[in-house]
Amino acid sequence: MKAIVSVFAKDRIGIIADVCVLISSMQVNILDLNQTIMDGFFTMVMLVDTSTTDKPFDEIRSALETEGEKLGLDIRIQREDIFDAMHRV
Question: N vs C: which end of the chain shows fewer Cβ within 10 Å?
Fold first, then answer.
């Protein structure tokens, strides 16, 4: 299953590395990512494949939120089908 991961934080060195290490530690595959810095704030959106892990989606979501808070990051994950339905015009 594909999912969308969004990351928001005040910019600092190592955000992409921290998030990639966290995601890869759960055996989730990163398919694509886009990041930018706007007026000192880091934003990143990633497309990931969760079919590569045996962890339940809710466990992934919880780990990303918990570890993100420890790192000073707002990390959220949403199933691709739900994301698409919410953003369909």
Answer: C
